[in-house]
Amino acid sequence: MLDSSLITSLTDLLGADQVLTSDEQVADRRHDYWVLSHLRSWAGVFTGRPGAVVRPQSTQEVQAIMRLASKTNTAVVPFGLGSGVCGGVQPDQSVLLLDLSMLNQIHAIDEVNLTATFAAGVNGLVAEEAVAAKGLTIGHWPQSIAVSTVGGWVSTRAAGQFSTAYGNIEDMVYSLEVVLPSGELVTLGCAPRAAAGPDLRHLFLGAEGVMGVVTSVTLALHRQAEQRTYRVFHTPSLAAGLEAQRLIMQAGWMPPVVRQYDARETRRNFKEWSVKGDGMLMMVHEGPAGRVAAEVEAVDALAAECGLTRADDQVAAHWMENRNHVPSWEELFDQGLVVDTIEISGSWTTIEAIYDQAIADVSALEGVVAVSAHSSHAYRTGVNLYFTFAGVSDDPQVLESIYLACWHAVMEATAAHDGGVAHHHGIGRVRKNYLVHDLGETGVALLRTVKNAVDPQGLMNPGNLLPDA
Question: What is the dihedral of CA 128, 132, 135, 141, to 10 degrees?
């Protein structure tokens, strides 16, 4: 429980309307969008809640809150809009939850230098629409864009659906303003590029709230594309589609969207356009008209070289219209189902082995009724895979066991073939004990050392990101 004197001090500092303490007031901030938190809540076994929620409206208020937290040795969990899917938010009553959604100011849009500065709580779609009104784009389109914040993008090291051309969030961040656990303020990044020692922005990119509080973000922008067109191909095998992706990327072409679906996902998502036994490779091309034309011509030739055949480009238009629709977890629980996605990455020479082992191992689990995969982010050096699984049971405890077994199988299959266990959703609680696969024991120890140096009291988002000791 939080000390009543702290609540009084926070109320004096912020006003009663910015300090929430009742069960009703904090109900929608008890956890993020992690399936397991929702399953436990649905089953009535998750009863946790933060001790209080505070809603600062300025960086200065965040600093004052962190000074109070440091003085009273109170744990703090930063919170944007709660769209994270890995269990990064799970406070108990000893914790102060820092709701940043009122830090929603658009500070500046610079049309000459192509930058925009947003307070961390700005809704992602609001940010994109603000720059779009000036003929610009951030180029960051996560599925959660309408229910996530700019600060959340940074804190989870997010990737958007158009990443193959525009990059991931780390490629867009120009500068960060961060409140440290002590309440001190630091601004990192002041020029297009710097060789001023290690890039300290990366201490907070992907830190998931364990290092400090991101309060403002300046992003580098793009001018809106002159032209957009689509290409969709039937893939006779997973290998053929992956080889086409490799050749396209290594030739230097960068369609913003490159998505390949295995045969299972093709049937499920694009039944009207599917061919029995085939998967599908879909691309969105955009940019200057001349470059788009050249890219499409080159992609057509490379796809044909790999044995791909043209499909109906309407598939891509259909995907564009429906790409952000996600059913609620509770709708699925009511049907006795638990469903989730797991995104990993691997090199071109290992990704098929990861796919084969993960599909086989998850399929063999009792209670699993479906498992499939698609890729959605491609690079010169490799590609990601996005596994989807479904388990069935009338017993919520069994559903949880199935869920954790599926995650374990995919994490171990990925690690067995030297893949990366997290591509863009982050670590949270669901992946933290697999982080050693990416960092090694020495890397995990180094991360702990950095965490302890930045946050010696261990105040920031305890239990998240770092593996259990």
Answer: 40
Q: Are 363 and 233 in contact (CB under 8 A)?
A: no
Decide if pLDDT at 326 tops 80.
no
4-99 maps to CATH 3.30.43.10: yes
Domain 329-434: CATH architecture, name and number where available = 2-Layer Sandwich (3.30)
Instruction: Kindly state the DSSP code that residue 378 receives in the 8-state scheme.
Output: B
CATH code of the domain made up of 227-322: 3.30.70.3450
**Fold for domain 106-223?**
3.30.465
Dihedral over Cα of 168, 173, 177, 182: its sign: positive
> Looking at residue 327, what is its pLDDT?
78
The encoded tokens of residue 16 equal 């009663």
Amino acid at 244: A
Q: Which ranges in 27-83 belong to alpha helices (H)?
A: 35-43, 59-72
- Any idea where the domains of the chain sit in the sequence? 4-99, 106-223, 227-322, 329-434
Please name the amino acid found at residue 460. Answer: M
The residues near 467 (Cβ < 8 Å, ≥ 6 apart) are 432, 433, 435, 436, 444
Question: By 3-state DSSP, what share of the chain in percent is helix, strand and coil, each rounded to 5?
Answer: 40, 25, 35
Q: State pLDDT tens for residues 228-242.
A: 999 999 999 999 999
